[in-house]
């Protein structure tokens, strides 16, 4: 018998290097290109909103855990930082500071902590925060600063509509598609992100870059983004083919609004998405479908956040019915 | 504007009335005839749904009571005799009284008595450790102190003592439902007669190994010397292999065995301290099972 | 590399833990005998053997000291010569004290009829029945870790016929190299052993599965089997748990073993390299199973090695021979890091089931803090059996055992892939094991009840 006491536990006696902390850091890293892009487009405003959202999310999580729930605060896992960043990405860069804080409180306090904290929330906290703000303060949430021209000014920024809002307005007033197109930014601008909008959603290119990193690190799998993008493309494509005068073309649908941010970062949120590839594809398709329905037939110009939240509610059901194929079950009959 | 409000009120209330009528007929149609005494019996049961009676929940127990002609073999350990008298009254049959029982832990492998030889690092369930190996101490039969019994207790009557690492049973809260008896993977917990004035004597060891081996891993182990058997005037103690067992139906609480036991494996509970052997007064904690070293 | 294209593996799940095959280049050495050996009578799956020697008896190496205790049981042989000192319970790798025969070693006298020369005898004279009888008498069990008595495996149940033999040279556990060394040093003997088992099972085809991290073994066995129509060496992609029976069957033949079934249900028998070598020694050399190759390894050990060890030698002796127990040892594991069993004392004797001794430092041994599940689904995508470990854990945690049984928790092979990949470090396998054991206990009790009622 050696003098030291041996440790006994069940196997496995080794574990992978990945941790929750590491996963969160990966998401933050993946968000950086889009963040840099929004700094470039919106300047100081973007910086202000992001910092405020991250700081208040972390602070609220700490305060709630420490003083209301009386548990050990878990802000070290980094999930609050990610929530804060994602919330900021869904806000216009000229949003008043107190609205950002209210949004963070809703995201952390209502959407996350009241369900039991990390891992137990059925809905994406950042999106709940955004939708709450969107419904409560529609004007502030939809007056977007114009890209680039406004980046140096802090107050009274020049605001303008997003491409999607232009389209929605145009269709409402029976403006022909060809005429609308002249008002809209080019596809290249849309892809790079020289357009108005929420601070993180504008640049498809930067978001795809981040998405590639997440795929490489295996934080997300391809199923949800691809299923969602394809559904949006195919569904709006069919509508466009049926009557090109009434509907905008699918490429425009994909490149505008929060489609890429939603597909790569919001819908793939681990906690609120299904567990199996089959389920992920159904989930992605559902989001794509609802998004297009809201955009084309609904009252709002944009529907990604609503679509994701609606599909979030279906996740338990999807998980129940989309089981992985079990070894040995097929052959057994 | 007024008409809008009027129509709203009208349509909503007519909807409500209509649903009410439908519900009324459905309730009539699908009404299940049930013995009203089941509700009465359930009413006097404690409603803890602990399963201590052997049936899934108080409702089921009430059903069984109503259906059976006599209360033989039916007993609610939580409600005790009072509760069963009430049940018998409702059903108009004779009550079968049972002596009050309580749970005892037949292990005294405290930190002091049983040195830890290794460290368990993992999920804190006794069942998991039991399946894995003999435990943190050398004793393969003793308590692992991870509290499966605590988790199983619906009455908050068990806690793990920080001092000894063993479960302590609060006899005032314990209703002898037997959940902990089933939960313990090493079968260390036994339901015993609560005893006169709540006094009990039992062997606090479950190690059936030979004396030498048992003693090697735990100072307070029963070594199977058999002295208690010889000294017992009531034939209440028998040896099960090298392990003594006191039959609580025969034991008259004379305490001779307690003095005789060389390792202090026999425990007495709620007795006043012996005059010849002054001990720290346990009156403050006398209500609970104390692992006091009572060797002679 | 040319090999890459043809590499097969099992299709679903699996992980890639760091290889850490520290002792891959160390030839097999024979470990000197200690002063006493403690030979447990239960070194195999099934009924323990019954001791037939008494204290004070003089025994020779290879002599039967405990007789098979039933059909699913085998003989236990003396692994050292000397005098039986005690027959008592000792702590073994199960973590419980169980009966063992303790021998005070005197010299090294073997039974005279055992052929200890290194010559290779490749001509097989034994018939099918003779082979099965002989391996039972010589106490041969599956040396992959499960220690299932070989004669049972070589006798397919009625109505079933083996069509193919698979040889498990995968050794997918990190650190372990015993099978690797055996293939390199005893390749010819292993091929003879394979032919013996093929004769016993009456099969024409054998596939040897070896992972691509043992290229030298693949090459060597390929040159030996060149021109052989029945035996093929199949290189496999490195992927844990390929050495698990079900995964190996799927990797090599694309068949799936049905739930609750055995490979024989799809006409397959799987044998481990070590077992095959033991069969060779038993049939051709008349040598019962008294020793095996064991890898002694660990990052902090001075000399990670492969030893030929007699059963009953205390674990600590092996560690001493490999450079001594490091200062900050946290865990000693019998087996590999993924499925091995942590020992509670270093005196535990090595047995037929010990494939390796792994010494982990305090840092490596420590379990990390458990965080809430973030539903990342890694456990689901890495489970080679298509289970949902996160779900099973929460079901067991809540006591919903029936639901867990419906999710086929019992099909879990306890490979540990789920707990390995979990970023929240959740003890998934702890709970799955708990659930399995509760179900198994319940089934046992139900069986007992049925038997009792049948008696009435």
Explain how this protein is built.
The complex is a heterotrimer of chains A (333), B (296) and C (456). Chain A has 333 residues and is mostly helical. In chain A, α1 packs antiparallel against α2 and α11 runs antiparallel to α13. Chain A is built from 16 helices and three strands. Helices cover 62% and strands 2% of the residues of chain A. With 296 residues, chain B is an alpha+beta fold. Helices cover 31% and strands 12% of the residues of chain B. Chain B starts with a helix and ends in a 27-residue tail after the last strand. Chain C is α/β, with parallel strands linked by helices. Chain C folds into two domains: 280 residues, 3-Layer(aba) Sandwich (Rossmann fold), CATH 3.40.50; 78 residues. In chain C, a hairpin with a 7-residue loop joins β13 and β14. Chain C starts with 27 loop residues before the first strand and ends with a helix. The mean pLDDT of chain C is 90. Classes of the chains: A mainly alpha (333), B alpha+beta (296), C alpha/beta (456). At the A-C interface, β1, α1 and α16 of A face β15, β16, α9, α10 and α13 of C.
Structural class of chain A: mainly alpha
Could you say how many structural domains of chain B there are in total?
2
Enumerate the strands of the largest sheet of chain A in spatial order, edge to edge or round the barrel.
2-3
The CATH topology of the largest domain in chain B comes to Alpha-Beta Plaits
Please state how the strands of the largest beta sheet of chain B are arranged side by side: 1-5
- Compressed to H and E, one letter per element, the order of chain B equals HHHHEEHHEEHEEHHEEHE
The oligomerization state is: heterotrimer
Q: Runs of chain B with pLDDT <50, length 5+?
A: 277-296
Total individual domains of chain A: 2
Helix-strand blueprint:
The complex is a heterotrimer of chains A (333), B (296) and C (456).
Chain A: E1 6-8, H1 20-42, H2 44-68, H3 79-89, H4 97-112, H5 125-136, H6 138-142, E2 144-145, E3 159-160, H7 163-172, H8 177-183, H9 187-192, H10 204-216, H11 223-242, H12 250-255, H13 259-266, H14 277-297, H15 304-321, H16 329-332
Antiparallel strand pairs in A: 2-3
Helix pairs in contact in A: 1-2, 1-3, 1-10, 2-3, 2-4, 3-4, 3-5, 4-5, 5-15, 10-13, 11-13, 11-14, 14-15
Chain B: H1 2-29, H2 36-44, H3 58-67, H4 80-91, E1 101-105, E2 118-120, H5 126-132, H6 148-152, E3 158-160, E4 167-169, H7 179-183, E5 189-193, E6 200-203, H8 211-217, H9 227-231, E7 237-240, E8 243-246, H10 256-260, E9 266-269
Antiparallel strand pairs in B: 1-5, 3-4, 6-9, 7-8
Helix pairs in contact in B: 2-3, 2-4
Chain C: E1 28-30, E2 36-40, E3 50-51, E4 58-59, E5 64-67, E6 76-77, E7 82-91, E8 97-105, H1 128-137, H2 150-153, E9 164-169, H3 178-185, H4 187-201, E10 205-211, H5 215-224, E11 231-236, H6 245-253, E12 268-272, H7 273-285, E13 291-297, E14 305-310, H8 315-321, E15 329-334, E16 341-342, E17 356-361, H9 362-365, H10 378-382, H11 389-397, H12 401-406, H13 417-421, H14 428-455
Parallel strand pairs in C: 1-14, 9-10, 9-12, 10-11, 13-17
Antiparallel strand pairs in C: 2-8, 3-5, 4-7, 5-6, 7-8, 13-14, 15-16, 15-17
Helix pairs in contact in C: 1-4, 3-5, 4-7, 11-14
